[in-house]
């Protein structure tokens, strides 16, 4: 709030500085008030308590998933691929020189220790967000029909416009046959 | 008081912009250099307060609209979702609901100022009528907003108020069906009230622009009710009026804050925390406090069409105040007889408000009829007559004379404040 006075100042310089002090203090309090008023307006657009509660971690029982089967669950609105890999798929993923891949990452880094057969990925193509199709493409992995990106049996990008490997969600094993995602 | 702009842009950017869209000059001549009577008191700060409250209602309303669902099965729960889940949702909701009350409080004080000081008189008739239009739009907006939470009071207020239109002869029932979008208040009604509740505040903002424009053509009225005659009678809007407005706005916000943070449900009705039940009417339906005087007038008249007509007339008559009041003197400061009638009128409106909150039984009915009669007698008989029979006090020669004595402000002991050239 600009309060430039067009009047000439009469009076002593003590009057001047008192007025200046009062104007500066008023301006400072008004500015603090404006910031305080903006905070709730911006904060209300962040996820609310019910959305956060709906995004709480989920537990998935791995028992029913057969070897070679890929299932899809949803967490926080995103598709999660749970892939019970065959030995062939694991070997193929480890046979390649991963340093030469478009997004270099070893297969070991993408699974939990001792649980090589369980590949858990966020099923969103890193190109523009479509859901890739399982057991398709040239690399025994996933094929994204939107623009032709191809992922291998470790979910790593091999060919196509996608810039990065399929992302890993946060998860841990709560037992040998059950995981908690989130 | 519109003349050539005295705005001299300093920065190269402002010079460039001013030559293409003179908004800097407009703001300067309207809110910086604008000549303001030097004797304005704090009753004149409520126009600025009202503009601020309109902005508050629009901002909090738009933000609430991000979380509200306008469907009969979801509306009530969506409001509870706002209160419980949305970050600061409780604050946004209470800001908006108590903001409406504060908006009407400021509006009534603003109207009272106009009536006391004769701000509706020539040449400010159009300014006044625009104000009445804004008031009517506010009433409509507030009513529709209250329906949205879909509580018991929301639903039954919607039923009662829309049923008012059935009093219109011949086409009344069709109009009500058309308003409802069905055979009773239901989902179509709620949806269209939501749409219109979002729209009308922007219509209000447009009429407020016209209202301020009309004001700036004539210039402010002032407590003495006499025109500013020279540069001595006025000061620049900034910093004097700006600081005065800001100060009283801060005081007003303290009151606003008191409600929001300590007694946020005091002005509301507990029955609106019960989800709407079309099968059960609450024992005492009352509107929010700001509609109570008009509600009392409506119920005081025994006939259905009569009640609706008088309800409308009680507000529409206000538009005719510039012609109903025949006195040549503007300000009640110099009208000793009118001043007494003014305060009786204020007491009447407050009394009607109280009676509107009570059940329409026994003594309350008689009292409401007497006060309703006086409301209209004041406007239609007292005001026209007073102009002829009252002897006003002698007017000061100028605003400066009214507030300065021997070159000093009356009651001051320090040096004379600088005189601003306009």
Summarize this structure as a short list of keywords or feature phrases.
heterodimer; A: 182 residues; alpha+beta; Rieske Iron-sulfur Protein; 2 domains; four-stranded antiparallel sheet; disordered N terminus; B: 422 residues; mainly alpha; Cytochrome Bc1 Complex, Chain C; Helix Hairpins; two-stranded antiparallel ribbon; two-stranded antiparallel sheet; 4 strands; 62% helix
User: How many individual β-strands of chain A?
Assistant: 10
Radius of gyration of chain A: 28 Å
Strand content of chain B: under 5%
Q: Give the CA-CA distance, first to last residue of chain B.
A: 10 Å
Order of helices and strands of chain B: HHEHHHHHHHEHHHHHHHEE
Report how far apart the termini of chain A are.
Answer: 47 Å
Strand order of the largest sheet of chain B: 1-2
Secondary-structure blueprint:
The complex is a heterodimer of chains A (182) and B (422).
Chain A lengths: L12 H31 L5 H6 L3 E4 L8 E6 L2 E7 L2 H9 L22 E5 L10 E4 L4 E3 L6 E2 L5 E3 L11 E5 L2 E4 L1
Antiparallel strand pairs in A: 1-10, 2-3, 3-4, 5-6, 6-7, 7-8, 9-10
Chain B lengths: L11 H9 L2 H9 L3 E3 L8 H20 L9 H10 L4 H29 L7 H23 L4 H12 L8 H9 L6 H32 L15 E3 H26 L29 H9 L3 H13 L4 H4 L11 H22 L4 H28 L9 H5 E2 L2 E2 L13
Antiparallel strand pairs in B: 1-2, 3-4
How would you characterize the overall build of this protein?
- Chain A is α+β, with helices and mostly antiparallel strands and 182 residues long.
- Chain A is built from three helices and ten strands.
- Chain A is elongated and about 90 Å long.
- Chain A starts with 12 loop residues before the first helix and ends with a strand.
- Chain B has two domains: 31-282, Cytochrome Bc1 Complex, Chain C (Up-down Bundle); 286-397, plastocyanin oxidoreductase (Helix Hairpins, Orthogonal Bundle), CATH 1.10.287.
- In chain B, 62% of the residues lie in helices and 2% in strands.
- Chain B is built from 16 helices and four strands.
């Amino acid at each position: 709030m600009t309060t430039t006075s067009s009047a000439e100042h009469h009076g002593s310089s003590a009057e001047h500085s008192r007025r200046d002090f009062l104007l500066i203090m008023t301006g400072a309090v008004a500015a603090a008030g404006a910031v305080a008023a903006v905070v709730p307006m911006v904060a209300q657009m962040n996820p609310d308590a019910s959305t956060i509660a709906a995004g709480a971690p989920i537990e998935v029982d791995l028992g029913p998933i057969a070897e070679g089967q890929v299932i899809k669950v949803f967490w926080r609105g995103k598709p999660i691929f749970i892939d019970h890999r065959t030995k062939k798929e694991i070997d193929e993923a480890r046979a390649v020189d991963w340093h030469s891949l478009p997004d270099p990452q070893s297969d070991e880094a993408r699974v939990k220790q001792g649980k090589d057969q369980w590949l858990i990925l966020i099923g969103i193509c890193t190109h523009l967000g479509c859901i890739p199709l399982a057991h398709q493409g040239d690399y025994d992995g996933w094929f994204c029909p939107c623009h032709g990106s191809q992922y291998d049996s470790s979910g790593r990008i091999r060919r196509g416009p996608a810039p990065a490997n399929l992302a890993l969600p946060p998860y841990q094993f709560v037992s040998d046959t059950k995981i908690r995602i989130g | 008081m519109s003349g050539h702009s005295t705005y001299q842009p300093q920065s190269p950017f402002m010079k460039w912009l001013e030559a293409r869209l003179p908004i800097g000059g407009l703001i300067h001549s309207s809110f910086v250099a604008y000549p303001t009577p030097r004797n304005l008191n704090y009753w004149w700060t409520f126009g600025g307060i009202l503009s601020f409250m309109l902005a508050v209602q629009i901002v909090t309303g738009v933000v609430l609209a991000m979380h509200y669902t306008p469907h009969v099965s979801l509306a009530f729960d969506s409001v509870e979702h706002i209160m419980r889940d949305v970050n600061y949702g409780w604050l946004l909701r209470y800001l908006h609901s108590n903001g409406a009350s504060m908006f009407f409080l400021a509006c009534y004080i603003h109207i009272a100022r106009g009536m006391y000081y004769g701000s509706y008189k020539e040449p400010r008739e159009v300014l006044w009528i625009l104000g009445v239009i804004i008031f009517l739009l506010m009433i409509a907006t507030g009513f529709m907003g209250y329906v949205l939470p879909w509580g018991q009071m929301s639903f039954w207020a919607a039923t009662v108020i829309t049923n008012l239109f059935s009093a219109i002869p011949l086409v009344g029932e069709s109009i009500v069906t058309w308003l409802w979008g069905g055979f009773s208040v239901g989902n179509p009604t709620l949806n269209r009230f939501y749409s219109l509740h979002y729209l009308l505040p922007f219509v209000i903002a447009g009429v407020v622009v016209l209202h301020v424009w009309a004001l700036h053509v004539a210039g402010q009225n002032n407590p003495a009710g006499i025109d500013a005659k020279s540069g001595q009678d006025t000061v620049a809007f900034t910093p004097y009026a700006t600081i005065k407005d800001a100060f009283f706005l801060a005081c007003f916000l303290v009151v606003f804050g008191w409600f929001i943070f300590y007694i946020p449900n005091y002005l509301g009705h507990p029955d609106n925390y019960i989800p709407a039940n079309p099968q059960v009417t609450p024992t005492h339906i009352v509107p929010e406090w700001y509609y109570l005087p008009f509600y009392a007038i409506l119920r005081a008249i025994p006939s259905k069409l009569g009640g609706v007509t008088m309800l409308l007339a009680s507000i529409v008559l206000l538009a005719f105040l510039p012609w109903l009041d025949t006195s040549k003197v503007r300000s009640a400061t110099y009208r000793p007889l009118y001043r007494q009638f003014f305060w009786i009128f204020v007491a009447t409106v407050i009394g009607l408000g109280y009676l509107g909150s009570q059940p329409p039984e026994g003594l309350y009915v008689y009292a409401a009829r007497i006060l309703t009669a006086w409301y209209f007698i004041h406007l239609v008989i007292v005001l026209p007559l007073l102009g002829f029979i009252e002897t006003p006090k002698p007017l000061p020669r100028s605003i400066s004379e009214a507030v300065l004595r021997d070159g000093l402000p009356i009651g001051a002991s320090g040096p004379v404040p600088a005189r601003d050239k306009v």
